[in-house]
Amino acid sequence: QKEVEQNSGPLSVPEGAIASLNCTYSDRGSQSFFWYRQYSGKSPELIMSIYSNGDKEDGRFTAQLNKASQYVSLLIRDSQPSDSATYLCAVTRSNYQLIWGAGTKLIIKP
Amino acid sequence: KAGVTQTPRYLIKTRGQQVTLSCSPISGHRSVSWYQQTPGQGLQFLFEYFSETQRNKGNFPGRFSGRQFSNSRSEMNVSTLELGDSALYLCASSLGGQGKLFFGSGTQLSVL
Lengths: 110, 112
Description:
Chain A is mainly β. Chain A has no helices and eleven strands.
């Protein structure tokens, strides 16, 4: 079992709909959780970070964390074609090392 | 504020050679991490340096090494190159290395 698991996709979502991306992790001592977006041919860029249970909203993006169930999700409201990218989930282990999921490819269809 | 700068952008080497990649972090950032990215394996952690000390290391052979200088600039070296080392090598900097990383554009290494 991988430490951080994501569905590789592709996840296809119609323009204007909500895209829901999920990530599970195995280290119960993990404290910090991050979502990165990577466009094809580009480097990853940080879009959201979350540290405590619940929801954190930033514009059209909402990160959700449930430590008891060991999952973190990213919701993208009013999806736009420009949101088409690979979304990487990253989690810090209890020893502070950052562990990455393999990424979910998201395709927003006009 | 200038971003993370990686040089060179592209590199072509032959098997058995060695290569050195360079990374200049964002000013004030003391942590530099290196990653290997391939289409099949995703983002693989190589190592992290903080204040010139290697703080974490991934599961790569000893042919992969790195160092960080007093100005936080970092270099990564790969000796005895193999075909499987062909990949995009990404450097990322952060203030304290706690997950909020800023990535450079990467060095695309091709080993022939």
